[in-house]
């Protein structure tokens, strides 16, 4: 039976997956790929609540090293409807090996320095700059955040005490850095899992379940494919279900970090259960830099926020079989409603005709007549 809900009320929980398929024998199950084996136990997915979608505008280094551009991008993200404006913080000489630091940028056209290290230094904003950006976010009603790439960067951003700090896919096995976030910071930590094995994801969650980690109330785990941009066939949205299956009750929420083109994929990610959505954001996709091509511009981000809100509103069951807005249409358009007297007569004639066919006395029923002709004759 349909769930009983107040009229037009959103359900508290909605089932994500289909009914449990037949359980495979242990020998067969052991021989299947992990993803296929997970599908055989899809009913293990717990019901979950479709919460309000949250959007992170990942500005990253798209400010081109200029504080004023960074502030402008925050204002544009707020205007578009984003929840969070996020940057990145690195300590290049700590993060990179000497060989990496002194090597030329792999794409000289996008480089802001003679070497990759100089390029990274040019794009870095100081911790004082980040404090100014955080203050700007407070003034315009936007949450500030940053992804941290190394231990020094983590310690610096922790001093700002933002509501959330991000760990990108490249850094999710950096335990010294994550220990700073786990033990010296009390806010949420959002962790992407691009280019990460299932075993490495399990290590991440276990690490945050230890000590002061409190993964259940602090960690948001994101599915991600690390590419710029990512073709649709490599987005692998169903990995959201795999994270739900294993971690829904071990972390605070599941998110999706997308590097694809367009915004259709993000709506599907939310429908699959990703509460958080992260997209790279820029003012102009033709600007110099490696991330702009996989970023949304203001108009695209605004449409994404709008469509996610509409999708969340639609995520509910019907509160009754016939909604109030359907009643007028039902009375006007539905066969058997607007013409119910005629249909009743047709039904009675069909019963009489059936009686003749079953050998009842002919005087008790009229001769069979085309139902269509009957309907026409009734209307002259």
Describe how the helices and strands are arranged.
Layout lengths: L25 H6 L2 H6 L14 E7 L6 H14 L3 E6 L2 H4 L2 H5 L13 H8 L3 H14 L2 E6 L2 H8 L5 E4 L7 H9 L4 E5 L5 H12 L5 H4 E6 L14 H9 L5 E6 L5 H9 L3 E5 L17 H17 L9 H10 L6 H18 L13 H8 L2
- Strand proportion: 5-15%
- Unreliable stretches covering 5 or more consecutive residues: 1-32, 38-46, 362-380
Instruction: Give the structural class.
Output: alpha/beta
Number of strands: 8
How many alpha or pi helices? 17
Distance between the termini: 44 Å
| Main pleated sheet | 8 strands, parallel
Widest sheet: strand order? 3-2-1-8-7-6-5-4
Shape: elongated
What helical percentage do the residues reach?
Answer: 40-55%
Radius of gyration: 29 Å
Write down the secondary-structure element order. HHEHEHHHHEHEHEHHEHEHEHHHH
| Overall pLDDT | 86
Brief sketch in words of this structure:
The protein contains 17 helices and eight strands. The chain has 380 residues and is an alpha/beta fold.
Describe this structure in words.
The protein is of the alpha/beta class and 380 residues long. The chain is 42% helix and 12% strand. It has 17 helices and 8 strands. The chain has helices at 26-31, 34-39, 67-80, 92-95, 98-102, 116-123, 127-140, 151-158, 175-183, 198-209, 215-218, 239-247, 264-272, 298-314, 324-333, 340-357, 371-378; strands spanning 54-60, 84-89, 143-148, 164-167, 188-192, 219-224, 253-258, 276-280. It has an 8-stranded parallel sheet with strand order 3-2-1-8-7-6-5-4. Helix 3 runs parallel beside helix 7 and helix 8 (151-158) runs parallel beside helix 9. The model is unreliable at 1-32, 38-46 and 362-380 (pLDDT under 50).
């Amino acid at each position: 039976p349909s769930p009983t809900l107040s009229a037009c009320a959103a359900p508290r929980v909605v089932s994500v997956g289909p009914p449990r398929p037949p359980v495979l024998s242990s020998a067969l199950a052991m021989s299947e790929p992990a993803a296929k084996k997970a599908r055989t136990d899809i009913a293990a997915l717990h019901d979950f609540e479709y919460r309000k979608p949250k959007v992170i505008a990942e500005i990253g280094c798209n400010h081109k090293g200029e504080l004023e551009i960074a502030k402008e991008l925050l204002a544009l993200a707020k205007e578009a409807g984003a929840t969070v404006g996020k940057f990145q913080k690195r300590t290049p000489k700590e993060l990179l090996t000497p060989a990496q630091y002194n090597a030329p940028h792999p794409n000289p056209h996008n480089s802001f320095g003679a070497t990759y290290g100089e390029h990274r230094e040019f794009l870095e904003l100081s911790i004082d700059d980040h404090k100014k950006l955080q203050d700007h976010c407070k003034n315009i009603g936007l949450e500030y955040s940053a992804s941290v790439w190394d231990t020094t960067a983590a310690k610096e951003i922790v001093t700002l005490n933002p509501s959330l700090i991000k760990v990108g896919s490249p850094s999710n096995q950096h335990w010294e850095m994550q220990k700073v976030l786990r033990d010296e910071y009390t806010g949420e930590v959002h962790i992407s899992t691009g280019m990460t094995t299932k075993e490495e994801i399990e290590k991440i969650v276990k690490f945050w379940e230890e000590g002061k980690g409190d993964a259940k109330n602090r960690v948001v785990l994101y599915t991600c494919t690390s590419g710029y941009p990512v073709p649709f066939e490599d987005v692998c949205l169903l990995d959201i279900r795999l994270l739900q299956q294993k971690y829904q009750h071990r972390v605070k929420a599941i998110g999706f970090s997308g590097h694809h083109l367009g915004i259709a994929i993000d709506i599907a990610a939310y429908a699959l259960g990703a509460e958080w959505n992260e997209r790279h954001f820029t003012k102009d996709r033709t600007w110099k830099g490696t991330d702009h091509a996989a970023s949304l511009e203001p108009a695209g981000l605004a449409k994404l926020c709008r469509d996610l809100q509409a999708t969340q509103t639609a995520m509910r069951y019907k509160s009754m079989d016939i909604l109030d807005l359907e009643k007028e249409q039902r009375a006007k358009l539905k066969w058997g409603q607007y013409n119910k007297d005629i249909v009743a007569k047709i039904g009675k004639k069909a019963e009489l005709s059936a009686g003749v066919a079953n050998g009842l006395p002919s005087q008790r029923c009229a001769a069979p007549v085309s139902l269509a002709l009957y309907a026409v004759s009734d209307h002259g």
